[in-house]
Amino acid sequence: MSTNTAQRITDLRALLHKANRAYYVDAKPIMSDGEFDRLLAELASLEKQHPELNDPNSPTARVGGEINGFKAIKHALPMLSIDNTYSEADVREWHTRILKGLGVETTSLFSSPAASPISFIAEPKVDGLALSLRYENGSLAYAVTRGDGTKGDDVTAAARVIRNIPLTLEPGSPQILEVRGEVFLPLASFEKMNKQREDEGEDLFMNPRNAAAGTLKQLDTKIIAARGLQFAAHGKGEISDAAFATGHWDFLAKLRALGIPTNPGSRTCTTIDDVLTAIHDFDARRHTMPYAVDGLVIRVDNYKQQDALGLTSKSPRWAIAYKYPAERKTTILLHVEPQVGKTGKITPRATMQPVLLAGTTVQHATLHNYGRIRDASTNPQDVNAPRTHLCIGDTVYVEKAGEIIPQVVGAMLSKRPANAKQIEPPTACPVCNGTVEVEPAEAADNPALETARRCVNPECPAQVREKLVWFTGRKQMDIEGLGEKTIDQIRASSVPLNSFAEIFRLHHHRAALLTIDRMGEKKVDNLLAGIEAAKSRGLAKLLAGLGIRHVGDSTAKAIAKLFPDLAALLAATEEQLRPKSLSTERALALGYAKDPADRPETGLGKDSGPIVHAYLHSPVAKRLFDQLRELGLNLTSLDYIDPASQPAAPTNFFTGKTIVLTGTLEHFDRTTLEEKLEKLGAKCSGSVSKKTSLLIAGTSAGSKLDKARELNIEVWDESQLLQQLKSLDNL
């Protein structure tokens, strides 16, 4: 190897690192994307020819291979969440507490703002995934998610392929530097990724935050690298040099000097009026940001003052997050269309005059159920109050739940036109003209309302299509490549796809699949490989995927714990499906309460149990199970708990409780938390009813929180949950 080659490799690495910094940190690109890619390809070629010059911090290390799971790492300092507020009055109260905590006279601050002893930083709150980057001797050592605040998942391999996270820092870094921030997906990348998923027939991500979280947990770093995640620093963890920065503003400047990106929208404030001005100014432009934001973080700048103010059990006293209320606008309800889901449930869908809301144009929204449409229970004396009693032609209030999902929250009665038309619920299925059953509301104070109406024809074409989409989903059989659009494409072709069994016969139709638009050899082979892999998912996933009424993910798991295989399940009586019927010894072994009255129904009670049992023994189900068995599916339970080998699980606060999660949680992703609670003996449900024991509400909680309050159900925030879990040594 010549000296010139070694020097060229060194020069290319330095130039590409410099280009990354110029693009992501300084916002002053020094080369085009095409030039960057050409130089990166040249460097990769030279490194391949000379493996003895391998450098784990080379720019080429940002594309890699497979990740073998995620191990837990304890944070050197806890990653705390920040308290939220939704009103200016609360911000003023927080400011008063800051002054009192630092012993500052309130009047002195307003007499001479320039002489104020306290300054604040207002910083846009990026709606992403919290991440801690630890640098040791100027090199990225590891990256860890927030997790439960005490420990998180090691996602270093994923962080290394995020282009704007520096692998090495500029000179001047402390020996140990932990940087906290947000991993996020720019809106342009989010739209591009969803467009690609739509073209490939994959399910779409609901919002950029979910997309970022899902991307960071991918096991293939090439996929992570291709999706365009970015990072913005907003805080600190462990720092070996206490004199590195005197305050947050100084800290952000030092990070930028080291090559670490920060949020460019931050500003300093010296009075509470400056803070409120920053809140108003950002409100006017937050929907123009290139990434999703969910508020503005206000914090005391000076680190000594932060230390003096201290922390609560879960949050710093020196910071608060102002969350903007959901934007609400009015528009005209044009018509309502009934849609049939996988269980036959008929849901009304509103079409409205298009309205710009929270940065996007909204024209459609779900109306949940026909009982809600006809609800006139709001105050009839206030003609301008939002009312859920809707008519075609009404001026309706529309807002976005959590700034993402549009919903109609009521109508303005004072603007109801004389020719407004009542919304009539369908008396027959709008797809197959089959029989419709109406489920009455549980609320005793309004028995005339309904909670749902369903088509009871199991061969309804709309149900078949929706059941196939559900069956192949990630939480069910998880068939990669067989998303909604691909299912529609196949069903529109000559290839038969009208039942679950026919999914597992698609390998007989490979040649026909290749004739479908955008179904090349690679895509078809990946699809067939995904179908083959799904055969081994086990009993719980299969039951969850069939779309049986009252059997969702958690109920399917509960059933699979009781029975070793499908044969044992089919041999059980209806009563034996229920935890309440278990012997004390068996119940304790499975984590249920000793007293049958305290055990959850797991969706199978006196009303639902017979329905599930009847389906399992119906001719349709028998034919399906026989077909799936012949096609090689694994019908054993991967979740079965053998009472002979399983020690009795101790009871705890969560044992036997039915818990509903709602809103955005800071310390958990929902699937992980549900699994944790289920291991503690709880049942996690997706809807609030009189049977709900507890609602855990994160930020941006919506209608589930309202219903829980109406039913006087206990509501916890995330801090109460964390405290209870810690008392069980479960964190």
Features:
single chain, 731 residues, alpha+beta, Helix Hairpins, D-amino Acid Aminotransferase, Chain A, domain 1, OB fold (Dihydrolipoamide Acetyltransferase, E2P), six-stranded antiparallel beta sheet, five-stranded mixed beta sheet, 26 helices, 25 strands, 34% helix, 20% strand, globular
Structure notes:
With 731 residues, the protein is α+β, with helices and mostly antiparallel strands. It has 6 domains: 3-62, Helix Hairpins (Orthogonal Bundle), CATH 1.10.287; 84-322, DNA ligase/mRNA capping enzyme (D-amino Acid Aminotransferase, Chain A, domain 1, 2-Layer Sandwich); 328-422 and 449-455, OB fold (Dihydrolipoamide Acetyltransferase, E2P) (Beta Barrel), CATH 2.40.50; 461-534, Orthogonal Bundle (DNA polymerase, domain 1), CATH 1.10.150; 539-630, DNA polymerase, domain 1, CATH 1.10.150; 658-727, BRCT domain (Rossmann fold), CATH 3.40.50.10190. The protein is 34% helix and 20% strand. It contains 26 helices and 25 strands. The strands form 7 sheets. The protein has a 6-stranded antiparallel beta sheet. Strand 4 and strand 5 form a beta hairpin. Helix 1 packs antiparallel against helix 2 and helix 18 runs antiparallel to helix 19. 36% of the residues are buried. Residues 64-68, 107-115 and 376-385 have low confidence and may be disordered.
